[in-house]
Amino acid sequence: MIQPSALPRALPGYEQIKRYWDHHHAGYIAKILPGEYYVTRHDEILTTVVGSCISACIRDSVNGIGGMNHFMLPTHVACKNKWEYTNVSVASRYGSFAMEHMINEILKYGGNRRNLEVKLFGGGRIMQNMANIGQKNIEFIKNYIQTEGLTLLAEDLGDIYPRKILYYPVNGRVRVKKLRSMEQSVLVRENAYRRNLEKQPLAGDVDLF
C-alpha cells in the first residue's frame, strides 16, 4: 500500500504523541507510552506494549471515535507501603482519572456514552520477585467497568507475559501478541513510570459528562 500524502491531523492536545506511517501494517500508527492516552476520529492504529500495566481500548461503536490508554496504579499511598481500596484512596483515584479522562475526551469529540465498548489488556506478572502489581491493576479495572456500567466486549488479562497491542478504533479490531521473552525495555519503562507515580500523587478530581 502506498503511503498517503499526509499524516492525519491529531485532535487538539495530542500533538506530543508519536505518530508515523508503518509499511508493515499499511497504516498510520500512534504509539502510546506509559501514562499516556490518545483519542482519534481517523483511521489510525493505536499501539502500546504493556507488562503489569493496563491498556483500555474504548470506542463509540456508532461514530467510530475511540482511544487507548496505558496506566498503572501507584503501589503505595502517601507513606503507607500497601494498597488502599477506599473511594478516596490515591490509588483508586488515579485509576479513575486515567479512565475518565479518556472517556471524557471521546465524548467531547462526538462520542456517546451509551455506544461505548471496552476491551482490556495487560496486568501480567512479569517479574516473579516483585509484588503482583498486575493483579491489583486487574482488580481495579474490572471493578471500575462494572461500577460504571460500561460494556466490556473482550479482555486478555493476567498471565506472565508482556503484550503488544494494535487497536483499530474505526472498527474495534484488536491484535494482541504475547511476548514470550521479556523485553528489558518494557521493564525499564514500567519501573520508571511506577517510581514517578509514587513521587507525584494525583491531585484533583475528574467528573464524567
UniProtKB/TrEMBL annotation:
Coiled-coil spans in chain: none
Gene Ontology terms, MF aspect: protein-glutamine glutaminase activity
GO biological process: chemotaxis
Reaction(s) this enzyme catalyzes, per UniProt: L-glutaminyl-[protein] + H2O = L-glutamyl-[protein] + NH4(+)
Family matches, as Gene3D superfamilies: 3.30.1330.200
Domain of life, source organism: Bacteria
EC number from the UniProt entry: 3.5.1.44
Keyword annotations of the record: Chemotaxis, Hydrolase
InterPro entries: CheD-like_sf (IPR038592), Chemorcpt_Glu_NH3ase_CheD (IPR005659), Cytotoxic_necrot_fac-like_cat (IPR011324)
Family: Belongs to the CheD family.
Primary role: Probably deamidates glutamine residues to glutamate on methyl-accepting chemotaxis receptors (MCPs), playing an important role in chemotaxis.
Name of the protein in its database record: Probable chemoreceptor glutamine deamidase CheD
